[in-house]
Amino acid sequence: MQTIAVFGASGGLGLALIEEYLKRNSSTQVLAVSRSACPPELADNERVQWQKTELTEQKLQALTERWQQQNIVLHGVISTIGWLHQLHPEYGDWQPERRIEQLNEAQLIEYFRTNAILPALILKAVKPLLAKKEASFVVQLGAKVGSIGDNQLGGWYGYRASKAAVNMLYKNAAIEFKRTHKQLCIGVIHPGTTDTELSKPFQERLPADKLYSTQLSAERICNVIDNLTPSDSGGFWFWDGKLLPW
After folding, report:
1. What is the maximum alpha-carbon separation in the chain?
2. How many CB atoms are closer than 10 A to CB 213?
3. CA dihedral for 8, 13, 14, 17, sign (positive or negative)
């Protein structure tokens, strides 16, 4: 039996990843973590344990401590946490900044809090639960625009920078964890532009064959994970398994 934790479980990709893992292995148990309640289609599934909670450092710590008390061992962790645009109750419509004149402190802080800090805190919280005697993985969904080497267009200041930051945080953790978790692979995967709420405002100019369904993206992500080995830890991959430049 393998146990997989999915953070950001109620989003389009989160749900698709849960369904993909349940389909791939009849013995897989999924720990689903989200700010939203469990959707009806998963409510009666005995292989899914749904946890509704806010994603803060204190809540994450409390959650993983409960899992420890239940003697849970994690063979995989996937975080889909991240945002690109949102309607903020105080500041209004936050869209990615195209020019430096559009930068503001509040939006930049929120980009880094959600896209970099939370994924790092998830990694910190799950560390005591990760399998040591069996192969395991921790994967954060990233973005190609977080690649500094691939940046040819500029723009999207806060999103690009926060995604680059999570790359560094996960690379750093991969180096540290190798000392204690010999069979663990930590990395970041770019899923491609997927038909979710995150990409909706930017789909209009996208060729039809470049917008992927959540089911296809989940399948591709799982395929990449299946081919990872401990020697790959610290990598940044495209959805087809090719390495992306930092």
Report:
1. 52
2. 13
3. negative
Q: Quote the CA–CA distance of 38 and 31 in Å, as a whole number.
A: 11
Q: Is the dihedral of CA 128, 133, 134, 138 positive or negative?
A: positive
∠ at Cα 180 (120, 236), nearest 5°?
45
| Cα-only R_g, the chain | 17
Residues in the chain: 246
Q: Which candidate, 93, 72, 192, places its Cα nearest to that of 144?
A: 192
Can you say whether the dihedral through the CA atoms of 20, 21, 24, 27 is positive or negative? negative
Q: Which two tokens stand for residue 244?
A: 């992306």
C-alpha distances in angstroms, 52 versus 28, 35, 141, 192? 20, 5, 20, 27
What digits encode the pLDDT tens for the residues 19-55?
A: 999 999 999 999 999 999 999 999 999 999 999 999 9
